[in-house]
Amino acid sequence: MRNFVKLxxxxxFIPFFYPALxxxxxxxxKKAFKKMDFKLGDKVIVPGSGAGHDLxxxxxxxxxxxxDISDVMIGISKIKLKAYGxxxxxxxxxxxxxxxxxxxxxxxxxxxxxxxxxxxxxKKAFAEIVRVIKPGGKILVFxxxxxxxxxxxxxxxxxxxxxxxxxxxxxxxxxEIIEGLPVVIEEVIPGDxxxxxxxxxxxxQ
Length: 205
Ligand SMILES: C[S@@+](CC[C@H](N)C(=O)[O-])C[C@H]1O[C@@H](n2cnc3c(N)ncnc32)[C@H](O)[C@@H]1O
Prior knowledge:
Elements: H1 4-11, H2 14-22, H3 26-34, E1 43-47, H4 53-57, E2 63-68, H5 71-83, E3 90-94, E4 107-113, H6 122-132, E5 133-143, H7 156-163, H8 174-178, E6 183-190, E7 198-204
Parallel strand pairs: 1-2, 1-4, 2-3, 4-5
Antiparallel strand pairs: 5-7, 6-7
The structure holds S-adenosylmethionine.
S-adenosylmethionine (SAM) binds near residues 97, 114 and 118.
C-alpha cells in the first residue's frame, strides 16, 4: 500500500516522458556500462529495469534478469527487447526489489540506473542486491545521489517533499544507503555534463 502512489506513477505518465528525459545522459550511461567489463557467462541483475533501456545496452553474451514492479514498464521493455533481438539473453520479471525471492550470492553484477532515488526504501533494496551478488561482484549505481558531507541545494528539500511520494527523491545519500553492508565504493565518475547524476562503481567484499 505504501508503494501505491509510486506504482500508479510508474504505470501511467512516467513511462511516456521518461525516455526523452534520459536521452541527454545516454552517452555517460554507456561509458559507465563499458567500465563494468561484462564477460561471457556473467549473470547480471537489473532492479528497476523500467522501459528496458539498460537491458539493451548490456552485451548479448551476458545472462540478464530485469526486475520491475510496474506492469506498464515491463510491457514496454518486453516489446523493446524483441525489437532489439535481445529477448534470448534477457528475462524481465515482476518482483519487488525490496524483497527478492532469489538466492544469496547468485549474480556476478548488478546495474542500478536511476533506481535508488526512486525505490521506496533504498537501504532495504540495496541490502537485497548485496545479498544476491557474489563476493567480489560489481555493482554500478548510476543515479543522482549525494556523498557524505555534500548537502542538497536549498531548493532540493521542498522539491523532495512533493516528489518523493510519486517519482524520485532528490536528497538521498549513497554513503547512508550502503552503511553497514559489506561493500566498498571503488570509483565515482560523472554521469552527466553537470554532475547531477554520477556513476558509483561498488564491489561486494
Ligand atoms: C526511473 S525508472 C529507471 C528505469 C531504468 N533503470 C532506466 O534507467 O531507464 C525506475 C524504475 O524502478 C521501478 N521500481 C520502483 N520501485 C521498485 C521496486 N520496489 N521494485 C522493483 N522496481 C521498482 C519503477 O517501476 C521504474 O520502472
